[in-house]
Amino acid sequence: MEIAANGAIAAAYFIIPLTLLPLLRTTQREVWLNLLLATMFIFSCGVGHTLSAMHLHSALWHWVTAGISWAAVVVLLSSQTRLRYLGETFSLLEATWEQALTGKMLCERLGDDLKVLKLNPAATEITQNLLRPGDRLCEKMPIHRQQVYPYEVPLIDLYFAALDSGEPNRLEYQYKGEISGWYMNLVAPLSPKLLFMTFTEVSGVIHDPLTGLYNRRVLEMELENWDICLFLDLDRFKLINDQRGHFLGDELLKAAAEVLQAHAQSYDGIAVRNGGDEFLLLLPAPDAASPEACPTPVAIAEDVLNDILDIEVEGATISVSIGVASGAIEAFQEDAPINRLLQAAETALREAKRNRRSNLPQHRIQVWNSALARRRLRQITLEAYLVQRSSELEFWLAYQPICCMQTGAIVGAEALIRWDSAQLGRVSPSEFIPVAEETGLVHRISDWVLCHALEQLAQWQEIAPQFNLSVNISPLELEDDDFLDRVMQRVVGAGIVSHHFGIEITERGIYNNLERYLQSLQELRDMSLRLKVDDFGMGQSGLAQLLQFRFDEVKVDRYFIPTNAQNLEKVAICRAIANLSEGIHFDLVAEGIEHTDQRDLMLGLNYNYGQGYLFSRPMTAQNLTALLQEGRELGVGG
Ligand code: C2E
Ligand code: MG
Ligand code: MG
Q1: Ligand 1 pocket check: which of 433, 474, 536 to mutate, most ligand atoms within 8 Å of Cβ?
Q2: Range 246-272 average pLDDT
Q3: 37 C-alpha vs ligand 1 centroid, how far in Å?
Q4: Is 366 a residue whose pLDDT tops 90?
Q5: Residue 129 CB–ligand 1 contact under 6 Å
Q6: Which ligand is nearest to the CA of 502?
Q7: What distance in Å separates the CA atoms of residue 280 and residue 601, rounded to the nearest whole number?
Q8: 9 vs 3, 16, 65, 72, 405, CA distance in Å?
Q9: Is 530 exposed, middle or buried (0-12, 13-18, 19+ CB in 10 A)?
Q10: Nearest protein Cα to ligand 1, atom 23
Q11: pLDDT at residue 638, rounded to an integer
């Protein structure tokens, strides 16, 4: 009996170290020595016990056991703090495991499936209670065996690939099945059989809640390098939103998104809401094997355009402008090809918006081409030089007289900026002002113009006290909070009579933010500056918007000035504006008068003032000073 009991004890002494040995392979460095000494201690106790059971008393073995025991005691005592720290780390890990917002799951490879070993509450929630420890993953969630967008292999294969390579991998995919949505999953193999995953649903992050399309963030993910990009912008959408309400606006956006989604699906591409009323359609390169089966990018754009023109919600329709780019784009310095493609398409879109010659649908589509590439390159060059502060040394102001058409007397002038660049030669303001507007440099330029024009006006007011000078202001300035302060400061500093100083503003863009403009205009009026509408007739806002605010002067664009009396339409327009001016009391200036018969015609239509080559081209300040001193009359007697 005693022998049997002794045998049982001895067996346990040997089995315990055997079970501990595999732990030694995987355990943390901090506990490894403790574990080793404990194993050795139990083992040597086993040997000691066996020897005494066999009545083979060995003093040597007792010393060995004693040595091991004391070594274990010393190591255990010295590692107390570390062990406690380890314990705390474990409870911390336990807590983060339990309370994590991301799903965490530990799986083991079993044949062609994964067995769930452990999963945290978040994982249970994300997988909607489908998984329990012990479950086979693909059995419970069979979609794992299918391809999920955007990958071309089943998810489970991606997991196995991570296990085989031993490398962690970040996966982002659309899972449609037992659960639906977009998920981000970090898979980290712990051993060739053990896979640890951290996953979370990202549907809301890369999807636009209103339309359900992707949002811009998807572009950062670079899921694929797309070959074709259609950049779309709904036309005058803000107007619809303002006039018919946001609810209808939203419905129209959703309808447009549906059209885009359908097209994206039929070409294996994606549709993205870029923000507001801007959308992107990104498509892969046509199948190299049968390119003729795939329509050209322009043909696709035309289809999209036609489908969008067909949209009707509560009687409201929309139209869209589309920029198209495809293939490799070289014009931009961006490193990622996808960003270059996007920029090219966006540039083409801006061109489509700018160039719309008519309401014909084909004028709403602009394809990125070499001319655009050249123009873009030119813009980049201009921008690079304009950015340098030294460009200000190359600016100067030309002044074009504004005359009383009856007498030819100079009543004022318009300051027009000139840029004689050392590197680029003379650059027209029509070319560089739009670039400056796009880059925000226009604020600096405007300030430069203000300072110099005011200084000049102060001098001219001494020669001709009634002389008016005006400067051109980009509509963007009126949205800039500092602008009004700057004008005030400059005008006061120059010591001029302020109602002889004019601000010319084009209607272009006014509608974008009408209230803001009206408020800024009112502040300019409060400074008793002279407010002028420039290039009247060329903008989109029309009379109604414009008349909400009383301007002092309207400059009718050269385009509307008839060349002769047979120009019936233009004559009618000019007459209508003249009639209006009598009712609302604003002065009229006819722009671009080049011939005497134009002048006479405009005089007949009750236009008193004119500006144009007939009177004078823009000139230097010095030349205009001379004319003022002589009291010369221009364009008369010709
Ligand atoms: P704008 O304000 O309408 O200026 C009139 C433009 O028409 C000037 O061109 C002028 O030289 C030109 N012009 C005047 N009379 C005639 C004519 O009889 N026939 C023809 N064919 N053209 C005539 P410019 O100086 O090239 O300026 C172009 C535009 O650039 C200006 O149009 C204005 O919008 C903008 N701009 C000029 N200077 C400035 C500035 O200092 N600031 C801002 N923001 N814009 C400026
Ligand atoms: Mg002007
Ligand atoms: Mg003008």
Answers
A1: 433
A2: 93
A3: 92
A4: yes
A5: no
A6: 2
A7: 50
A8: 10, 11, 17, 21, 124
A9: buried
A10: 592
A11: 47
Residues 6+ apart with CB under 8 A from 263: 269, 271, 281, 300, 303, 304, 307
Rounded-to-integer distance, Cα 138 and Cα 130, Å: 11
Condensed to tens digits (0 to 9), the pLDDT of residues 326-350 reads: 988 887 777 778 888 999 999 999 8
3-class secondary structure for 401-442? Answer: EEEECCCCEEEEEEEEEEEEECCCEEECHHHHHHHHHHHCCH
Write down the pTM of the prediction: 0.64
Per-residue HEC secondary structure of 121-153 comes to HHHHHHCCCCCCCCCEHHHHCHHHHCECECCCC
C-alpha span between 611 and 592 (Å, rounded): 6
Residue length, the chain? Answer: 638
Helix/strand/coil for 445 = helix
C-beta atoms surrounding 562 within 10 Å: 20
Structure tokens at 223: 């899921």
**Distance, CA 534 to ligand 1 centroid (Å)?**
10
Q: For residue 531, what are the contacts with CB-CB under 8 A and spacing of at least 6?
A: 502, 503, 505, 521, 524, 525, 551, 552, 553
**pLDDT averaged over the chain?**
88
Strands of 278-283's sheet in order across: 214-215, 270-275, 278-283, 228-234, 320-326, 365-367
Ligand 1 within 6 A of 592 CB?
A: yes
Residue 104 structure tokens: 């965490």
Cβ(416) to ligand 1 under 6 A?
Answer: yes
Is the separation of the CB atoms in 207 and 261 below 8 Å?
no
Tokens of 281: 């359609």
Q: Which two tokens stand for residue 628?
A: 């003022």
User: How is residue 339 written in tokens?
Assistant: 């960003």
Helices and strands (H and E) in the chain: how many? 22, 22
**Separation of alpha carbons 236 and 440, rounded Å:** 24
Q: What is the 583 CA–ligand 2 centroid distance (Å)?
A: 24
Q: 430 CB under 6 A from ligand 1?
A: yes
Q: What is the sign of the dihedral through the CA atoms of 578, 583, 585 and 586?
A: negative
Chain-centroid distance of CA 124 in Å reads: 36
Cβ of 449 below 6 Å from ligand 1 = yes
Spatial distance between the Cα atoms of 187 and 169, rounded to a whole number of angstroms: 5
User: Which residues sit opposite 623 in a β-bridge?
Assistant: none
Q: What is the CA radius of gyration of the chain?
A: 40
